[in-house]
Amino acid sequence: MALKLKGVEYEYVEEDLKNKSPDLLKYNPIHKKVPLLLHNGKPIVESLVILEYIDETWPGPAILPSDPYDRAMARFWAKFLDEKCWPAMRRACLSRGEEQEKANEEANEVVMFLENELKGNKLFWGDTIGLVDIAANLIGHWYGIFEEYYGITQPPLITKDKFPNLCEWVDEYTNRSFVKEILPPKDKLAQLYMDRIQAAKAAAQ
User: Fold this and answer.
1) Which residue, 66, 58, 64, 111, is CA-closest to 87?
2) What is d(CA 114, CA 37) in angstroms, rounded to the nearest whole number?
3) In the chain, N or C terminus with fewer CB closer than 10 Å?
4) Contact 2, 63 (CB under 8 A)
5) pLDDT confidence of 117, banded at 50, 70, 90?
6) pLDDT value, residue 133
7) pLDDT tier at 151 (50, 70, 90 boundaries)?
């Protein structure tokens, strides 16, 4: 997403995480995970680190604000999404019974912070896509599919009644032309989740 925003040409290589390639193990021997950005033969790992590297390396639309305070806040909210928001939302999908009720309350609480932060803005930092919007991509495109195919949270966590600003953000973000070009098709994501569900069921037998 960041490379596309900057207008940088790149080669995208998909990775089979069940059968990790020699290149992935070579260039990310510590975490052995994606994403991994390889630039001039040098690896950069971890999503938020990669985003800042891209912003500092290539010209084009800024991913982080120029003001030091705004940059700090952008980093804070991106980290909040990564470390607090997504784990809470995932638990709301996967938990059951009394645990699910508690998980739903926690997820609603953290998502409300995002709702309030938008304050009616189209995007998290005004009218241009930046670090926080890209970090929130999981909410914008992935989570609805995750929620549907794991089929745990009822009713859906994010609705227009509860989170109107966030829902408007989802529409604005996912309908930007360059975003639409690069988001994986929903049917492909749905199949990915279905494969994981079937694999988990098979492992449990």
Assistant:
1) 111
2) 28
3) C
4) yes
5) very high
6) 94
7) low
